[in-house]
Amino acid sequence: MEIWLCLYFYLCGLVSLIIKSDHVLLMLMSLEFMSVVVFLFLFCCCGMMVGQFYLILFFLVIVVCEGVLGLSLLVGVVRSFGNDMIYCVL
């Protein structure tokens, strides 16, 4: 049951990423939501195995680095162009 719920939430995040692709901040929020869903899936799958929590910790480190990199790019774009609209940046 958890797998189908994670798949549904992941697809909802993917749809919101496709629909709201004009703002960089909304795209970053959709990517973070999808990362949280993948974390939930990993936690459900690897929680049953002993000693597999290092994979979850490694995944969280990668997600945090992705979030920091996205926010720093967003700050750079807003400082350069004044907003986060994709069509204004391109």
UniProtKB/TrEMBL annotation:
For this protein, the parts annotated as crossing the membrane are 24-46, 53-75
The top of its lineage is: Eukaryota, Metazoa, Ecdysozoa, Arthropoda, Chelicerata
Name the GO cellular-component terms. Answer: membrane
Q: Which UniProt keywords apply?
A: Membrane, Mitochondrion, NAD, Translocase, Transmembrane, Transmembrane helix
User: A Pfam family this protein belongs to?
Assistant: Oxidored_q2
State its location(s). Membrane
What topology does it adopt in the membrane?
A: Multi-pass membrane protein
Family, according to the entry, reads as follows: Belongs to the complex I subunit 4L family.
The organism's superkingdom is given as: Eukaryota
Q: What is this protein called?
A: NADH-ubiquinone oxidoreductase chain 4L
Give the Gene Ontology MF terms in alphabetical order: NADH dehydrogenase (ubiquinone) activity
Which reactions are catalysed by this chain? a ubiquinone + NADH + 5 H(+)(in) = a ubiquinol + NAD(+) + 4 H(+)(out)
Species in which this protein is naturally found? Pseudocellus pearsei
The positions making up the signal sequence are none
